[in-house]
Amino acid sequence: MSIDRAEVIVTSPDRNFVTLKLTTADGVTGLGDATLNGRELAVVSYLKDHVVPLLIGRDESRIEDTWQFLYRGAYWRRGPVTMAAIAAVDMALWDIKGKTANMPVYQLLGGASRRGLLAYGHASGKTLDELFDSIRSHQEQGYRAIRVQTGVPGLKSIYGIASNATYEANKGVRYDHEPAQRGALPHEEDWDTRSYLRHIPTVFEAVRNEFGPELPLLHDAHHRLTPIQAARLGKSLEPYDLFWLEDCTPAENQEALRLVRRHTTTPLAIGEIFNTVWDYQQIIREQLIDYVRSAVTHTGGITHLKKVLDYASQYQIKSGMHGPTDISPVGMAAAMHLGLAIHNFGIQEYMKHGEKTDAVFEQSFTWQDGYLHPGDRPGLGVELDVDGAGRYPYVQAYLPYNRLHDGTVHDW
Ligand code: KDG
Ligand code: MG
């Protein structure tokens, strides 16, 4: 057996997705997600120009060997483009292996460790009333854990809240809180850390008063704080018992988390922009985080993220895999299979895709009472309607960026 065909399919039903489709000599197909929000075509080129030619004729059963060949063989290691491309190959090979074995991928990873995956959704609102409505609507949709993002007085637009600009730029087509906007240039947002730090604890106090102590609440600071500011935020949120505070600092400075940890017991989640186990080396070994946020799509696939999570498990650190709308249904399926199988599963982020996306990617997962399950179809359980995908060509889109009031570019 060998890989006969490798196609890179770009489609933009509600937003851009990059999918690798492998076909073996006897006609078994496998899908992998290679979507890198705002930089999609870089991964397309990496795959088409440099990876696809290497895959033709390879034995599709050799997943680990192919991973090492693509990682070590490139000489240039790590980085989001490389690791998204490798992830797509890896997922597609697991998909093929599952179909060949007639088993869902989670069975190949050791079988189910739980009945389903607790998932959290994104509630947001510019005002408290809007936020409360959004939380209630998420509860009605079955969510048992909810991320809370709000507007901050004095700031026009802010991460995590659907802005009118986003909606208009996308010509009325957007997911609830999809931050990438279609158009030739990125949208500018504004930021002020002092206003944010004053406001957020009051929001969580109001949410706890309204919704009680039980509901798991999460919050994403989206890389914007210095270590001492993050420490202060974590401390000020302690009375509201967060499930986690995410990306409190731009975490490439791993040592920064030591300072944050010294001041707060609010659990910390980090890693959606990380792409290898080496990005986590210090923060896992020193137990500076509680949840690993990486997506299968951006961390070299199932093979590599499982290694990260196995390493994390030695320190009682759990998974909290990234699952915004820019992870395609294929990437989400891979996360669900991995999350179902590992022991140290924590929670899964789950933002629903749009109707057009769900029509192009036919999926087997279930969503019931706040829990996800990948389903029992052999492989990953996702099929791509290639003709349908062809009806939605790539549309240029960018993530926004931030400026402070004096015009300085700030972390977004
Ligand atoms: O592409 C960027 C998004 O994936 C990111 O902004 C979403 O931070 C995010 C989250 O926690 O879902
Ligand atoms: Mg995040």
Automatic annotation (TrEMBL):
GO terms for biological process: amino acid catabolic process; carbohydrate catabolic process. InterPro entries: D-mannonate_dehydratase-like (IPR034589), DgoD-like (IPR034593), Enolase-like_C_sf (IPR036849), Enolase-like_N (IPR029017), Enolase_C-like (IPR029065), Mandel_Rmase/mucon_lact_enz_CS (IPR018110), Mandelate_racemase_C (IPR013342), Mandelate_racemase_N_dom (IPR013341). GO terms for molecular function: magnesium ion binding; mannonate dehydratase activity. It comes from the Bacteria. PROSITE patterns: MR_MLE_1. NCBIfam families: ManoateDhtManD, PRK15072.1. Residues 128-267 form the Mandelate racemase/muconate lactonizing enzyme C-terminal domain. This is D-mannonate dehydratase. It comes from Allonocardiopsis opalescens. SMART domains: MR_MLE.
